[in-house]
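This part of the workshop introduces the protein records we will be handling. A record pairs a protein's sequence with a compact description of its fold. Comparing a sequence with its tokens is the quickest way to learn the format. The record below serves as our worked example for the rest of this section:
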Amino acid sequence: MIERALKKIIQESQRTHKAIIIMGSRQVGKTTLLKQLFPENDKCIWFYGDDFDTQQIFTQINSTRLRSIIGQNRTIVIDEAQRIKDIGLKMKIITDQMTDIQLVATGSSSFELANLVNEPLTGRKWEYQMYPLSFAEMVQHHGLQNELRLLPQRLVYGYYPEVVTSAGLEKQILKFLSDSYLYKDLLSLGSIKKPEKLVLLLQELAYQVGSQVSYNEIANTIGLDSKTVETYIQLLEKSYVIFRLRAFSRNGRNELKNSRKIYFYDNGIRNALISNFSPIETRMDTGALWENFAISERMKKIEYQGIWCNKYFWRTKEQKEIDYIEEQDGVLSTYEFKYNERKKTKFPSAFAKYYSSASYEVISPENIETFLL
């Protein structure tokens, strides 16, 4: 069994008696983790938001009826809670009127669940994000040496739990995930008027990993207006498929200020969207895959270790750039990502001129553990 990074954090959160909410895309292992922590027995009752009966139960729920349903249980788990209408108000009933009950909920659509629970549960919840498996988790599972040997595999197929544990079936599993199941909740929204355009948008983003993204250019390519493209990208981000980095700019006149880069939380999903599972040694996009891998894994580390920092990239009008920047307590740390450590790179003098105290490091397979562990 792979020990998940959130397990200890969730266990410690129970002491506060606040609601515990686990967000993340479908199939990352939220239900599996909670089954380990809160098995269905005489002390824990589960409700499944995808189940019609559960949705009906919660339609006209009140504290009296809910108490009778709960019985002697002391923990309530609501899986895929965003599927239940007005779930935030119903969760507030539990936290406010049943102080002896521990409420745990999962959601795969932050744009639905977070909006529904944030206001009703202000000050009453702990919210955590769960990702596909991480480099750090796999190192803990079978050792650093084994995981470093598997880097070429991870760059192509990613870290979704079923992908990692089903050798030989990676393509089929990723095809299933990328063929709408991952976006089930997203596609059910009324704001997604043209689902086929969503797929085209994802493919364009997949090809542009590691590059600056222009909403106008994408809009012209796929036949949507730029505002709609921006809306779809925001929804994809809130459904944990992609994330954005904004440009860093403080001093230089030539620094790009309003640019952005977009990455995928999982390399396997990215490659499935463009139907390319070629070995890393034969690919033309190895650099982009390595950058996506390193930055997405860093996001997991930041979340699971509770690191508070700002995250950017940097680029000038003259095309000078730095792949990734972190700002923590006023200190700037900059990083370049090179799959081939023999390729020469140097700290851009234009950046050093204005931010002379910033550190600079090149991240390759030779030292990736220093960046991710």
Remarks:
- The mean pLDDT is 91.
- The radius of gyration is 22 Å.
- The first helix runs from residue 6 to 13.
